[in-house]
Specification:
heterodimer, A: mainly alpha, Cytochrome Bc1 Complex, Chain D, domain 2, B: mainly beta, Immunoglobulin-like, five-stranded mixed β-sheet, five-stranded antiparallel β-sheet, 21 strands
Amino acid sequence: MTPLLKSPRGSDRHGFKKTHSWVVFCTLLGCFFVSSGCNKTPPASFRSNMIEATKQRLSQSQEKQVATVLLAMFGTPDNPVVLAETGLDLEKLTLCAGPVRSDIVGRKNGLYREHCAHCHGITGDAMGPTAAFLNPYPRDYRPGVFKFKSTERVEKPTHVDLVRILHNGIAGTSMPSFALLSETQIDALAEYVKYLSIRGETELSLMRAFFELDDDAKGILPETREFLIGEMLLPASEKWLAAKESQIPVPLISEGVDLVESIAKGKALFYGDKANCVKCHGVTGLGDGQANDYDDWNKPIVEIDKELRGTRERIKVTATASMSPEELAEHVALQDWVTKLSQVLDGDSLKPRTVVPRNLRHGVYRGGRRPLDLYYRIYAGINGAPMPAAKGAVSPEDIWHIVNYVRSLPYEFDGELGADRPLIARERF
Amino acid sequence: MNKFSGMFQSSSLTFCFSMVCAALCLVNSSASADDWGTIKGRFTFGGTPPASLEIKADKDIEVCGKHKLINEELVVGADKGIANVVIFVRDKNVKVHPDLAKTKSEKVILDNRDCRFHPHVAVLQTGQAFVLKNSDTVGHNSNVATIKNPASNNLIPSGGEVSQTLSSDEAIPAQVNCNIHPWMKAWLVVRPNPYATITAADGSFEIKNLPAGELELQLWHEKAGFIQEFTVGGKSEKVAKGRKKVTITPAGIDLGEMVISAGAFTK
């Protein structure tokens, strides 16, 4: 037997000796036929948002309070629960939840775990086992912020937006197209993403609510319907229901506008002070204008990292040989805090990465390559990312000119930019 | 009514004291209904203040390079006063003095000027007009990271402005950034009443016309978060979550010089 086959975890758990490995084999065979009863793997559970819990300095019992409320509101990854207020469709969620299996009519179940969880994580926290190897990292649904959509910047994507992403994938990232799944399956997965997102946003609200409690609440959240549903759940779910009403208006470009003329106007805007695209996307359009910014998903991790370094510095500065008992106690508390911060950074986050402005010379557009998609991106900016909204500052007609210029960038004559011109592939490699 | 309370203040001190007692006994009762008081104090830095760090503009150098830019995260004056400490009343249902009701119709302007935000900390009331404007010759954007209000991030071209109102109060000041010029950072305090302020360059602050009686203040600084501890007259005072209970009297109260130790500024 190779050490790999010994599987100490399995034999220990079942209490069998090595000599009885055939019994283990039979048991496993039995498991294969009778899937219930001897499956000892613990049921899947949602992970707590430890980054936020740490940021809010929640105690263990407070973390538990949040988990208990969430369990009642949303159930478990195997058995989702929905409250009417969320507007979610339990039937669709059931198709996605739980382990991969077939139901009584032979329909595939456990779609989320089959197709999504390895990157996006069972909780939708973008901490799946493959996440660390991907660049960009997968999307963390919990803050309820989505980039590529047809709605106003701060609004949720529409159901159709999510379905489009699932169908097309995201060019230039590890997100593949799921076009081979049936429409019903894609539709169900979009619903499940909303479910994880609403759950994640409710969790954030609950964790943040402790701070605002009065002292006499003794660190315990109210258990009233008004608070839990009205103040915590509804704000996270209402916006999904209203997404359809916040579609970005798209006036068409005036008729008779010449494309070459429009591209020239777009170029002037791109480099001009009004639209200011050049500042981040760079004079060459290679996306090298701004390299030290973080997006909203990485910022909390950067903050914790900063606090860790600050606290370590404080320990170093205040440590002396002759500390009073109080000083010593404070010192120990700070050490514990450092341990906690490092644990959370190691176990609940991936190394933060700076946000990269899009290289517009590739002709690869994450949110879709239709001119309409580029219009949405420029009009509303990219929620969660530094890209600001041009809405209000740049007229719809001018946004179309920028779209035309951006679409021409991968093909732009490379002599025009002089010394700043991008090198063509032949020269770069 | 206001004149009336003023008369009390000057004419009868003893009456004042009895009013305070009444306020203490019957919190938020009608007994203290028409008395108002001022609170003031000063925050100073305990230890050797850090040298102010100059920022080298690496964007729009021809414009931003002309201005002397410093890191404004922790500004300590010559007399150790800490600027930009935020002080606000935590109670959301606090009674508002009639003179202050008007303030809600005033605009709060956060200006992009000389490649920095003016002011560094803006104080806003819910429902009050909040104007982000750009007085520079270069373009800016303002990324407002509010938590309870929808976060916004608008391009603001030279000479342009964006006006909005925020409907929810924010428990924690929200950060405002310019992504084009990453050194530009400001904070936005959003409260449901006018009782919020920041310390001046010398570390001093004053909030006028607070309702007499017991109130809870919140003390916050961007490098320290909610201030947990300070020293007054050599005596240490712990204020968990930055909450300090005070009793406002018509005679006004002075919290004195509150020293925050250098170690608190870890953020």
